[in-house]
Design brief:
Elements (H helix, E strand, L loop, with lengths): L3 H8 L5 E5 L7 H9 L2 E7 L23 H14 L1 E3 L5 E3 L4 E3 L7 H14 L10
Parallel strand pairs: 1-2, 2-5
Antiparallel strand pairs: 3-4
Helix pairs in contact: 3-4
């Protein structure tokens, strides 16, 4: 059943794009619910976070949860965009969908990292575009 908000947006010609954390299992209920209501769904990957073998993020409180090295993080994002995979914390390869990239803004070098990433993706032949494009 569609939400009244979604129906009003559609009636007004406003496009809704639901962006949610990329999940590789059948437990991504928020994306499934959004798809059932009609909005386009974009799977978000994290540029600077480690993944578990099940495709979920390593909790921040655990060692290795954050990818601190910018070059490593950029290489991971390029891999996620080009191949649809990422190396999990235990060494396994996880398949995922990378429609959107999250860069966490609470790091001390976030602006520099975002600039490096936005230059590295086109250099690797990966187009950066708005969700609605």
């Amino acid at each position: 059943m569609k939400d009244a908000f979604i129906e009003n947006c559609e009636a007004s010609g406003i496009e809704i794009v639901y962006t949610g954390e990329c999940m590789t299992t059948d437990t991504d209920y928020s994306s499934q619910a959004a798809q059932a209501m009609g909005p386009r769904v974009c799977s978000e990957v994290s540029a600077d976070r480690a993944y578990r073998a099940d495709g979920t993020l390593v909790p921040r409180g655990l060692p290795g949860a954050m990818i601190e090295n910018e070059e490593d993080a950029i290489a991971r994002v390029v891999q996620m965009a080009e191949q649809g995979t990422v190396c999990a914390a235990g060494g396994s390869t996880v398949t995922l969908q990378a429609d959107s990239v999250c860069v966490h803004g609470d790091g001390c070098k976030v602006l520099c990292f975002a600039k490096q990433l936005s230059a590295a993706l086109p250099a690797a032949g990966i187009e950066i575009k708005a969700h609605s494009a």
